[in-house]
Design brief:
Largest sheet: 7 strands, parallel
Order of helices and strands: EHEHEHEHEHHEEEEEHHE
Mean pLDDT: 93
Distance between the termini: 42 Å
Radius of gyration: 18 Å
CATH superfamily: NAD(P)-binding Rossmann-like Domain
Shape: globular
CATH architecture: 3-Layer(aba) Sandwich
């Protein structure tokens, strides 16, 4: 039997990269997966890929920072699958520059998507988690549910030209530690995974023009120059850049029954890299 049979998982930012691999991994282990992404097309592609592999998926496109979206998102999961057992707060992006060049809009955007949005989603989920716990307690059953918040090594070890991003990801660690204490009584574990250098469109290698991604109508520079990528790779003890599947496997560890007595922890998935 698959590890997550009968479980319902919500994965934000699941249309591409790490989020997509997380959604596919959880579905492959039997979870029904509710997929969210800012863009509808990649979200629907992930849902179709899960269905093609024999899994079950539903989804809702939209920004996790949108007003009222957290409540709509959680309601969508419950309407689609009737429950919620795993929440993976993965949605995010980079908007980097040195601190003197950061605008108020840039600062707040990074804090909103990486810190405030997960808090809103978890706040929206709390009434359901509490009601489910109380019903199971009355029946004499113990069911452990899972929250996995996505952080970054930028929060743990620092990253130049990314202080607002690092601050948002650092807040995720504080959120994780605090909520682990608050929700332990509800039999909900709350952990974080801090990623190192993972191969996604945000970290793509380039040798010419600086690549960009578009987020809500604004272009953001992403990626590393070839020489910088080579330097970073040389610092990784495992001597390779992590894949999106490597990252998803780290998230998966906090979703399975074997981690039912682990909470309030931040796992670094970075191939042994501790500094840059």
């Amino acid at each position: 039997m698959t590890k997550l049979a009968g479980k319902v998982a919500l994965v934000t930012g699941a249309g591409r990269g790490i989020g997509r691999s997380v959604a596919m991994k959880l579905a492959s282990e039997g979870a029904q997966v509710f997929v969210n992404d800012l863009d509808a097309e990649p979200m629907e592609e992930v849902m179709q890929a899960i269905a093609d592999a024999g899994g079950q998926a539903a989804g809702l496109a939209g920004s996790v920072t949108g007003e009222g979206f957290a409540d709509t998102l959680v309601a969508g999961v419950l309407d689609a699958f009737g429950g919620l057992d795993i929440i993976v707060n993965n949605a995010g992006y980079i908007w980097n520059s040195t601190i003197q060049n950061q605008t108020d809009e840039q600062i707040m955007a990074m804090l909103d998507v990486h810190a405030a949005a997960p808090i809103r989603i978890l706040r929206a989920a709390q009434p359901h988690l509490r009601a489910a716990f109380r019903a199971e307690e009355a029946e004499g059953r113990r069911v452990v549910r899972k929250v996995v918040n996505i952080s970054s090594m930028a929060a743990v070890y620092g990253m130049p030209a990314a202080v607002s991003y690092a601050a948002g990801k650092g807040a995720v660690v504080g959120l994780t530690n605090g909520l682990a204490r608050e929700w332990g009584r509800l039999q909900v574990t709350v952990n974080a995974v801090a990623f190192g250098y993972i191969d996604t469109r945000l970290t793509q290698r380039f040798g010419g023009a600086h690549p960009t991604i578009q987020v809500e109508g604004r272009d953001h520079k992403v990626g590393f120059p070839e020489h910088q990528q080579e330097d970073l790779t040389s610092l990784i003890p495992l001597q390779r850049i992590g894949t999106a599947d490597d990252a998803a496997n780290g998230v998966y560890l906090f979703c399975i029954p074997e981690s039912d007595y682990i909470t309030g922890q931040t796992l670094v998935v970075g191939g042994g890299l501790t500094t840059g």
